[in-house]
Amino acid sequence: MKYRVFATDFDGTIATDGMLDGPTVGALQRLRSAGVICCLVTGRELWDFENADTVLSLFDYVVAENGAVLYTPGTKETRVIAPAPPADFLSELTRRGVPIRVGQVIVATVEPHEVAVLEAVKETALELQVIFNKGAVMVLPAGVNKATGLQAILDLCDMSFADVVGVGDAENDHVFLEHCGLSAAVANAVPGIKERAKVVTRSNAGAGVTELIDALLSENIKSLQPEEN
């Protein structure tokens, strides 16, 4: 098989309302049995999955908090590869009345609080970036994203992005998908992701991912790629 790594987003991609269906689980298990390294690349915090070991165990590696935290389910090892949220930034958000959720690195809220978040970034003069994800608003240190997190995993495996099939559905997936050897979008992805992906599945979310995996395993991926002129 040409591609040796499969990297997928979680919400809206392999999962619907936080749940994976049986066919999607089976497809991921078949892929790993074929020797493909499976990576979950998500904006979620690790503790979102603390009661879902069965989900994390489907993967060889997890990139969480939109690239800031790495986790190996087999050994339960966690690596935080970016600095914690600055205390003065958190204080400024609280002063402005912004509802936030704080991870080991990520600070998350929802629209329409992005205006207050951007004002807080400007007020504190910190090198922070604001990332959008289907109504969610995430703040991370500058230069931290899904691509940098996945790159750290690829370095561990002595592989490159050319070895990766990536699939996603939302704005925060673009930065890692554009680096992959093969980029895919599920049918329910936002328009900008579908326009840039090399492959768009016929089905939504998990069913679309299952469709993609079946094409990979049958070595019929060319049937999903647009014909060259």
From TrEMBL:
This is Uncharacterized protein. It comes from the Bacteria. It comes from Terrimicrobium sacchariphilum. One of its GO terms (molecular function) is phosphatase activity. InterPro entries: HAD-like_sf, HAD_sf. PANTHER family: HAD SUPERFAMILY HYDROLASE-LIKE, TYPE 3 (PTHR10000:SF8), PHOSPHOSERINE PHOSPHATASE (PTHR10000). GO terms for cellular component: cytosol.
